[in-house]
């Protein structure tokens, strides 16, 4: 298994190098810092974009406490405990980093916004390897993945190139839903992964439509504020999943479960359509 881990890392590094060679640099657009809602309340600049980060702190602290308090989540592997702890630390830190950035948006402060998010992303990738591929390989990958995420932020800051950070952010968005559907889970309630992915996708759409949503709502709320609230639903769903899930005895992937359900539905429909009725002749008498 150690050899497989080395091969996987070597392949990932090779693909990354090729991608960096064949694609142009992506500089940070300064228009990114121009958010729609700049209103100030109670002396707090960009108030709604700042305070909408508060749910991250609540969910992150709750998740972190439950990871270690009497093993409430019933985590059976040591690697899981540390990976989930890294995830919830990253989630809680988003509240501070993102709030700090939105008080005065610029590149220097954006580092502290993206850093905790990257820690959360990379921790999730390690968790999927632990749960669905190999426990030892996933546990070993926690520190390297987190470090790769941190390096991607530093690379962007010093070289004004977002390519490594874009890979770290968007690869999990594709890989996690695919792995959640295809790979057999260790635990029940895998559907929560897809709910979390759906809310994250919605958050990215709201982020892109920041000004449009602000206009649609007649300047009540901006897309970026809604983005924070939807993104905070990701750790909420994952926390609920951890609280509810149990060891999966059969370990069937969601794809296999859906395929079996589809076959049963088709079989049931066929049986209904093939039902036949027998009719008996009824003797009638003609009126005299």
From TrEMBL:
GO biological process terms on file: ceramide metabolic process
GO terms of molecular function: hydrolase activity, acting on carbon-nitrogen (but not peptide) bonds, in linear amides
Signal peptide: 1-27
Superkingdom: Eukaryota
Membrane topology: Multi-pass membrane protein
Keywords, in A-Z order: Hydrolase, Membrane, Signal, Transmembrane, Transmembrane helix
Transmembrane spans: 51-69, 81-103, 140-159, 165-183, 225-243
Magnesium listed as a keyword: no
Family membership noted in the UniProt record: Belongs to the alkaline ceramidase family.
Descriptive protein name: Ceramidase
């Amino acid at each position: 298994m150690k050899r497989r881990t080395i091969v996987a890392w070597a392949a990932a590094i090779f693909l990354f190098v090729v991608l960096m060679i064949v694609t142009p640099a992506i500089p940070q657009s300064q228009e990114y810092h121009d958010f729609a809602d700049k209103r100030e309340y109670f002396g707090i600049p960009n108030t709604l974009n700042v305070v909408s980060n508060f749910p991250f702190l609540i969910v992150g602290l709750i998740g972190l406490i439950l990871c270690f308090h009497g093993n409430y989540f019933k985590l059976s592997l040591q690697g899981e405990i540390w990976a989930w702890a890294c995830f919830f630390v990253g989630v809680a830190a988003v509240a501070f980093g993102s709030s700090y950035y939105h008080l005065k948006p610029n590149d220097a402060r954006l580092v502290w916004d993206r850093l905790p998010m990257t820690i959360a992303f990379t921790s999730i990738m390690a968790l999927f390897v632990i749960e669905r591929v190999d426990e030892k390989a996933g546990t070993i990958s926690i520190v390297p993945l987190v470090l790769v995420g941190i390096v991607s932020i530093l690379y962007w800051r010093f070289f004004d190139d977002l390519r490594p950070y874009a890979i770290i952010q968007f690869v999990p968005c594709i890989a996690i839903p695919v792995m959640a559907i295809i790979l057999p889970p260790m635990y029940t309630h895998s559907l929560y992964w897809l709910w979390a992915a759906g809310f994250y996708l919605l958050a990215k759409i709201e982020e892109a439509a920041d000004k449009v949503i602000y206009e649609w709502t007649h300047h009540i709320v901006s897309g970026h504020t809604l983005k924070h609230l939807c993104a905070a639903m990701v750790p909420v769903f994952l926390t609920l999943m951890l609280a509810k899930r149990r060891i999966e005895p059969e370990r069937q992937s969601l794809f296999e479960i859906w395929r079996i359900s589809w076959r049963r539905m088709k079989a049931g429909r066929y049986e209904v359509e093939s039902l036949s009725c027998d009719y008996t002749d009824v003797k009638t008498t003609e009126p005299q």
